[in-house]
Amino acid sequence: MEGLVSPKTTPRILFPTLNRRPSKFSIVRSVPASAMDAHRRNGVGFTPIRAQKAETKDGSATISSVMEDAETALKAKEWEVGMLINEVAASQGIKIRRRPPTGPPLHYVGPFQFRIQNEGNTPRNILEEIVWHKDVEVSQLKQRRPLSMLKKALDNAPPSRDFIGALMAANQRTGLPALIAEVKKASPSRGILREDFDPVEIARSYEKGGAACLSILTDEKYFKCPLLCKEFIVDAWQIYYARTKGADAVLLIAAVLPDLDIRYMTKICKLLGLTALVEVHDEREMDRVLGIEGIELIGINNRNLETFEVDNSNTKKLLEGERGEIIRQKNIIVVGESGLFTPDDIAYVQEAGVKAVLVGESIVKQDDPGKGITGLFGKDISV
Ligand SMILES: O=C(O)c1ccccc1NCC(=O)[C@H](O)[C@H](O)COP(=O)(O)O
Hints:
Blueprint: H1 16-20, E1 25-29, H2 33-41, E2 49-53, H3 63-91, E3 106-109, E4 112-115, H4 126-144, H5 147-153, H6 163-174, E5 178-183, E6 186-187, E7 191-192, H7 199-209, E8 213-216, H8 220-223, H9 236-244, E9 249-253, H10 259-272, E10 275-280, H11 283-290, E11 297-301, H12 313-319, H13 321-329, E12 333-337, H14 343-352, E13 356-359, H15 361-364, H16 369-377
Parallel strand pairs: 5-8, 5-13, 9-10, 10-11, 11-12, 12-13
Antiparallel strand pairs: 1-2, 3-4, 6-7
Helix pairs in contact: 5-9, 7-16, 9-10, 12-14
This protein binds ligand LARABZUK.
The site of the ligand O=C(O)c1ccccc1NCC(=O)[C@H](O)[C@H](O)COP(=O)(O)O has 20 residues, from helix 4, strand 13 and helix 15.
Protein name: Indole-3-glycerol-phosphate synthase
């Protein structure tokens, strides 16, 4: 049958919804030339398809076939948009593909479900896996709580607090980088960090220990944490959702989001009174972000989220020379993120120019996380 997969030769992918009732559809090929070219460039041999509505004998379409047609059209549109996002992202040097270029690995023929793995539907690293998973998770959440519902819920959210103001006040008070203390149970690179995980107790202990702000890992699948704040944002809907849950800041990862998304999402953050912490890891990402108007807070992640390699000199490297100059001119606050364990580490990134640090593992693992902060800074920063 047209569109079915012969993995050893040329993999061909069907949308699951198309395959469920093949008898009602005639399959035609249809794909934008640009997307097709991108796939050829990626070396992925596939035949994208779209379904056409079948007609009954008297020439009229059945209601269910019309609905399936609409569903199919929507899926096709979503797929096309996903492909375009991948193309735009690639043109900006983003290696993470927002969606699997050849569609999901699961396929259906009649009652049968089968999995076909190929380069285009296998994530190349953990960040890509997270983002693909997040895309599906968010589209399901959006169905349960549409944006219109979230907009109404905004009225009941607690007023947003000044995230940057809190960082600056702590930095001036202590003369040290302000601490964004991270509440997380586990991470993809380090596994479970703390078995007896009570997020509220940890947050209180951080507050007592002198943390200026808290970073709450909210991705359940990969961080096991039930609370909301630091997320893998792939859709503006998540920003509204974060605000309705009381978030004051959200994370936008430049390795995942093209410039246009960062621009758009930053504006939404402003509209909702949220601070956007825009995270970069390399020079290219830093240059992209410095080219975007209105960025106030940049995080330099010392951890490469594709390989998990941690290198604190990354912060120094990205703040040297012209980049550091632009950051100072624009009054951008820089946060040093990941891999900070000792007072020497803190001094090193402070020397490089950060005004704040985001720390998880080294403090969340301590019996008393608040006291862990004193160990991290080499002094009590709560007073
Ligand atoms: O930490 C990971 O393994 C990880 C993997 C994939 C995406 C994100 C990941 N971490 C998010 C973070 O940025 C860190 O949790 C944060 O910077 C704190 O780092 P650390 O002090 O080293 O726990």
